[in-house]
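quick one, 65 residues, struct below
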Amino acid sequence: MTSRIANVVPHDDHVVTAKEALEGLFLRLEMEAEVRLIAAALRAGWTADEALEAIEQLRADDTRH
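---
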């Protein structure tokens, strides 16, 4: 058990920014949301290209507001 404690890295070596801490989760959630949107569009009869175009349009609209 002592060897396990000795391997703990001091907190100063683990300092990260909030962005670094959240970026991976954010990217996974963004990808999951896009996959779900495309799947819903395909079930509604859209083509994959139409779904991707609609997602890109939503992103463009979001950045303009």
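The first helix runs from residue 2 to 6.
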